[in-house]
TrEMBL record:
The gene is htpG. Keywords: ATP-binding, Chaperone, Nucleotide-binding. It comes from Hymenobacter algoricola. The keyword Nuclease does not apply. This is Molecular chaperone HtpG. Belongs to the heat shock protein 90 family. PANTHER family: HEAT SHOCK PROTEIN 90 FAMILY MEMBER. It holds the Pfam family HATPase_c_3. InterPro entries: HATPase_C_sf (IPR036890), Heat_shock_protein_90_CS (IPR019805), HSP90_C (IPR037196), Hsp90_fam (IPR001404), Hsp90_N (IPR020575), Ribosomal_Su5_D2-typ_SF (IPR020568).
Length: 610
């Protein structure tokens, strides 16, 4: 006997909202319906294992098919099935106690709040109406003596429910595809959706006569069951065009939350490749999203891989994570596991760890900058490398330089270069004094330096071209000048006039005769502020990026060129001063364009005059 009735949602307006608002992508309907079919199949298998279902399980596939001529998509399973009463309970009422209030709130709330509201309603099945103007359910319960039931609805709140001669247990959902959803009648489109969301579901999914999924992906297995080849093969399945990963972490915890997965460390070198869609989030092997910023710490967004947890709360569309204590615990756990893995690699194979440092250094420094707890763990295995290529931990390096690189006020001064080639003259001048120089040329190093100065006691950093070599480390060792005070004043005036640039502040200093005649430096403070602004220092750093550069031009009073400039007459002295200044610019890579052309011509003239 056929029954007619109204779906208990208390409003006529809910279906347009389901269709237009509930899910950001209409393709989600297939994930929802296939996931429901898998759930029903797994539940039947569990009942059989418990002895509560004694019939033959037989083949437990979920079959998806499309009939373009009939304009239908069918999702069929041989799971629990439903009686007519269960359809009325689970389909018609759909837990919408409060749907009308939802409709009112929908009109006035922002998107984030609406996501939380719709998360209260169990509307997965009704995603079918995003692409269908009529949906049928043919179902028969696994329980003995039950009849098949046939439910149909045209997208309004009206439904019909009667008996059917369905011979086998399970449920067939038949979608009559709407005119505006023709794309979903294309087999290639459906296959793409199935590959995206259902590739690792635990029950076989058959489409066009082919099983499209792996029911037991490697993250569901124990690490002891797997080889390195298994991990690399799976990585290449996820990212077909990527280089093999450096190493990986197998996550497997069941208390105080459930979490499995595999996180891979890819080769990224010293580039900030923030590709935030490389970690895939699953819930019970159903693909949810590749936006995992709340689950995975920001600094680990560079990792690749899979995380699977049924304990991550989602809204009804399963597309947006909801803030929750479990998410924070998972985030903390992942951070700890990564720190433990890196510490283990460092302890067990220092040489191998150093070989990987160019790839993993970015992860470690980013983590230290963004997470204090990670800093405390990583300070023991973060590495620095000097220009000679030797690696040190922070404690090792402090010990290495403290004898020769302490200032008069007992500060350890760590010297660094951001470009050993371009700053070679300054590196060489520092080394000539027995100083060691670090290579700190990564995209995060300006921030990293600032953090280390805050964390390390009595330690400061200076770039090798921030001062003349004799002043990089103030040891209160004043050098004597061969020039009189009057000569120094006249030399300063000559150079100031020859340079004629307000951004260049001329000082006459007593340096070693072996130093260059003119050394141009940008003070460490100004240089660092500008570096941090360029790499996203933000806030108050923005003003320093727009300030004009203010350089110090150190004239070496003890270099023979100083005496030649003083002894030259008229324009000849100005020419020599300009030539020496241009040499200083050249050493800093700052001599370009018209000034470079003039320097070359002047050099040729001076050579000819000799």
């Amino acid at each position: 006997m056929q029954e007619k009735g109204s779906i208990s949602i208390h409003t006529e307006n809910i279906f347009p909202i389901i269709k237009k608002f509930l899910y950001s992508d209409h393709e989600i309907f297939l994930r929802e319906l296939v996931s429901n079919a898998v759930d029903a199949t797994q539940k039947l298998r569990s009942l059989a294992q418990l002895g509560e279902f004694k019939g033959e399980l037989g083949e437990l596939k979920v079959k998806v098919s499309v009939d373009k001529d009939a304009r239908t998509i069918t999702i069929a399973d041989r799971g629990l099935g439903m009686t007519a009463e269960e359809i009325k309970k689970y389909i018609n009422q759909i837990a919408f106690s409060g749907a009308s209030e939802f409709v009112e709130k929908y009109k006035e709330q922002d998107a984030a709040t609406k996501d939380q509201i719709i998360g209260k309603f169990g509307m997965g099945f009704y995603s079918a109406f995003m692409v269908a103007d009529n949906v049928e359910i043919f179902s028969r319960s696994y329980q003995e003596g039950t009849k098949g039931a046939h439910w149909t609805c045209d997208g309004s709140t009206e439904f019909t429910l009667d008996t059917t001669d369905k011979a086998d247990r399970g449920t067939d959902i038949v979608l009559h595809v709407a005119a505006d959803s023709d794309e979903f009648l294309e087999p290639a489109r459906l296959r793409t959706i199935l590959n995206k969301y259902c590739k690792f579901l635990p029950i076989e999914i058959e489409f066009e006569g082919e099983v499209i999924n792996q029911t037991a992906p490697i993250w569901t297995k124990q690490p002891a069951e797997l080889t390195d080849e298994d991990y690399v093969k799976f990585y290449q399945e996820l990212y077909p065009f990527s280089e093999p990963p450096l190493f990986w972490i197998h996550l497997n915890v069941d208390y105080p939350f459930n979490l499995t997965g595999i996180l891979y460390f890819p080769k990224v070198k010293d580039e900030l490749q923030f590709q935030r869609n490389k970690i895939q989030l699953y819930s019970r092997q159903v693909f949810i999203t590749d936006e995992v910023k709340d689950v995975v710490p920001e600094f680990l967004m560079l990792l690749h891989g899979v995380i699977d947890s049924p304990d991550i709360p989602l809204n009804v569309s399963r597309s947006f994570l909801q803030a929750d204590a479990a998410v924070k615990k998972i985030n903390t756990y992942i951070t700890k596991k990564v720190g433990d893995k890196l510490a283990e690699l460092y302890r067990k194979d220092r040489a191998g760890y150093e070989e990987k440092w160019s790839d993993i250094g970015l992860f470690v420094k980013y983590g230290m900058l963004s997470d204090d707890k990670f800093y405390e763990k990583a300070k023991d295995f973060v590495l620095v490398q000097n220009v000679a290529g030797k690696f040190f931990t922070l404690p090792e390096y402090q010990e290495f330089v403290q004898a020769n690189q302490k200032s008069k006020d007992e500060q350890t001064v760590i010297l660094y270069t951001t470009d050993a080639e371009a700053q070679h003259a300054f590196v060489q001048a520092a080394q000539d004094r027995g100083y060691d120089v670090l290579n700190l040329n990564g995209p995060l190093d300006s921030h990293f330096i600032g953090q280390l100065e805050q964390k390390l006691e009595k330690t400061t950093f200076k770039r090798v071209d921030a001062e003349t070599a004799s002043k990089l480390i103030d040891k209160d060792e004043a050098a004597e000048s061969v020039l009189s005070d009057d000569d120094k004043t006249r030399l300063q005036e000559l150079f100031t006039k020859a340079i004629s640039n307000e951004q260049m502040h001329v000082l006459v200093e007593a340096l070693s005769p072996q130093d260059a005649p003119v050394i141009i430096t940008l003070p460490e403070f100004m240089r660092r502020m500008k570096d941090m602004q360029r790499t996203g220092g933000g806030g108050g750093m923005q003003m320093f990026g727009s300030l004009p550069d203010s350089y110090t031009v150190s004239i070496n009073a003890n270099h023979p060129v100083a005496q030649r400039v003083l002894n030259a007459e008229g324009e000849a002295g100005a020419q020599l001063a300009r030539q020496a200044f241009d040499l200083g610019l050249l050493a800093q890579g700052m001599l370009k364009g018209e000034a470079l052309t003039a320097f070359v011509k002047r050099s040729a003239d001076l050579l000819a005059a000799e």
